[in-house]
């Protein structure tokens, strides 16, 4: 879906989330959301906050799994995804804290494998992800699944691509401060979500968006694996859709 402006796409994505949250609440069921970080999704989250404040949209029946976190990363750090999600969403809505799951960037090296398995199990115990909100990196990553990530990959530690670290440099006051690794949901974890909305805005994303949608399905561009999912939509502004 191509929108005139990014703000229209963000509003539309927030509305899709709100509709699902309400319908799950009406059924007395938990709504399991998977949420990305990054500049692209900021206005989706601000629209959700506004719906909470102005329309009384409740997130009491929602569980959230955040896609990824830098490694190592403490929750109080400026760049942590914990902090990002708190500031943009969690501090402003009635989502119970014990229903929030964010990969722990402080997990010791020798506990990572077990930790990632536990994260996967928590998703499974809640019945899987109902709706996943994604951005896309210029490498074609979804979550932090960098080129080379296979379709059957699960939550795991990953080495970040050089381009991803450059893109994150301004948040870290220099590329040398950007962590070299992250924990991310796998491509397989992402594809297990029942519904996926990927947002991308601006001309800087136009070429990777075209490769993701029209390119050959291959690990070189992990976002191409979304072509194999039967309920995925890209919400784009006209600049990000320019190469389609
Ligand atoms: C980040 C995140 C992704 C995000 C992407 C795009 O590093 N791990 O989940 O979608 O890069 O970020 P942005 O929206 O800032 O362009």
UniProtKB/TrEMBL annotation:
Q: Which residues form the Glucosamine/galactosamine-6-phosphate isomerase domain?
A: 6-229
Q: Is-annotated flag, keyword Oxidoreductase? A: no
Keyword Hydrolase found: yes
| MF terms in GO | glucosamine-6-phosphate deaminase activity
Alphabetized, the UniProt keywords read: Hydrolase
Choose any GO biological process term that the UniProt entry carries and state it.
Answer: N-acetylglucosamine metabolic process
This chain belongs to the protein called Glucosamine-6-phosphate deaminase 1
By which gene is this protein encoded? Answer: nagB_1
First and last residues shown, out of full length: 27 to 270 of 645
